[in-house]
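Is this the right way to post structure tokens for a design question? Let me know if I should format differently. Anyway, here goes:
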């Protein structure tokens, strides 16, 4: 016996395809040292929000997190290559009532990249220009408690 697709089945298929096309998962390239067990601890300790409009969303890579709109998300990757000595700007960011984390800060065409300095494994935070244009990047301090789970070996001068 052959069954003909019904209007209801066709509508359900179209709806399913439409939902999958609007996926809220952020594609992220996994960092080279993402399998470091400390990265799991860092990611599990990250906040659910970095402020208004920056709620945590799913990613598709190990040891990563993202906040905001999937196309313009703030993305964190744990296990990136630790930066060596640098002449780039290095900022010490103190979490209110918590740890101080040193970040190497690089701006490129409005996009901002913050990479922990002197911590192993290293953590990188990318803030797209669209987000940086709308708000301060002061939310970096909210990451301090999670990032402080990494071992501090050096600090900014």
């Amino acid at each position: 016996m052959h069954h003909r697709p019904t209007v209801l089945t066709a509508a359900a298929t179209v709806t399913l395809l439409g939902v999958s096309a609007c996926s809220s998962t952020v594609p992220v390239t996994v960092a080279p040292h993402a399998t470091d067990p400390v990265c799991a601890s860092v990611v599990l300790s990250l906040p659910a929000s970095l402020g208004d409009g920056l709620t945590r969303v799913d990613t598709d890579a190990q040891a990563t997190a993202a906040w905001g709109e999937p196309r313009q998300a703030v993305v964190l990757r744990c296990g990136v290559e630790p930066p060596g000595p640098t002449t780039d700007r290095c900022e010490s960011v103190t979490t209110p009532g918590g740890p101080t984390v040193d970040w190497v800060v690089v701006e490129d065409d409005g996009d901002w990249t913050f990479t922990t300095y002197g911590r192993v494994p290293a953590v990188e935070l990318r803030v797209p220009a669209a987000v940086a244009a709308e708000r301060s990047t002061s939310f970096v301090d909210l990451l301090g408690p999670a990032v402080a789970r990494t071992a501090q070996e050096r600090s900014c001068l």
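Format looks fine. Someone answered above. Worth noting: The first helix runs from residue 7 to 21. The first strand starts at residue 56 and ends at 57.
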